[in-house]
Write a structure and sequence with these properties.
By secondary structure, the protein is an alpha/beta fold. The chain is built from four helices and five strands. The chain has one domain: Ribonuclease H-like superfamily/Ribonuclease H (Nucleotidyltransferase, domain 5). Strands 3-2-1-4-5 form a five-stranded mixed sheet. The longest helix is centred in the middle third of the chain and has 22 residues.
Length: about 180
């Protein structure tokens, strides 16, 4: 039996590059019979949040959630996990560059250590663990097709910034399955 998960992820950073930058990541699990459920995660203050770190954190968060699900099932299905991002950077890290970087000792083509290596290595390690349960694929989608995850990130950044926001429940299905 195949257990499928479709996830959309996004990350965001306000005041990118400044000492008071804030960042958040969101994942949205799209349910098989309609609806979705979302989660958010704040980025730590150190290393300083950036947009790229937020996007990679969203990938990590999705992989953790998929592993959590795989390990909680009473049966041992083949997992088919599809993770969609609007970040060409995060997509490239997971589909092409990380394998080259790992083989090159995490040195990029300019001869420097890969930026965000800590997060990329964590994501690759989680991907490797999840592959024991099945197959993980990554897809790039245009930003306008990632609006639910994008909104969750913006709402969380507003909360961190102290702005009032109207919270979305995210539960648009009577089922708690994802």
């Amino acid at each position: 039996m195949v257990y499928m998960m479709k996830m959309e992820v996004d990350g965001g950073c306000r005041r990118n590059g400044s000492p008071n930058a804030i960042g958040a990541a969101a994942i949205v699990v799209v349910r098989k019979y309609g609806g979705w459920r979302s989660w958010t995660r704040d980025l730590p203050d150190y290393p300083a949040p950036t947009s790229q770190r937020a996007e990679l954190t969203a990938i990590i968060f999705a992989l953790e959630k998929a592993l959590e699900k795989a390990e909680s099932l009473d049966y041992n299905p083949f997992m088919r996990v599809r993770i969609f991002t609007d970040s060409k950077y995060a997509h490239g890290c997971m589909t092409d560059w990380s394998f080259k970087w790992r083989n090159n000792g995490w040195i990029n083509s300019a001869g420097n250590e890969v930026a965000n290596r800590d997060l990329i290595e964590e994501a690759v390690d989680l991907d490797d663990r999840l592959e024991q349960y099945g197959k993980v694929t990554y897809g790039w989608i245009p930003r306008d097709q990632n609006s639910t995850a994008d909104q969750a990130v913006r709402d969380r950044l507003d909360e961190i910034d102290g702005h009032d926001t109207e919270m979305q429940d995210g539960y648009q299905s009577s089922s708690d399955e994802y």
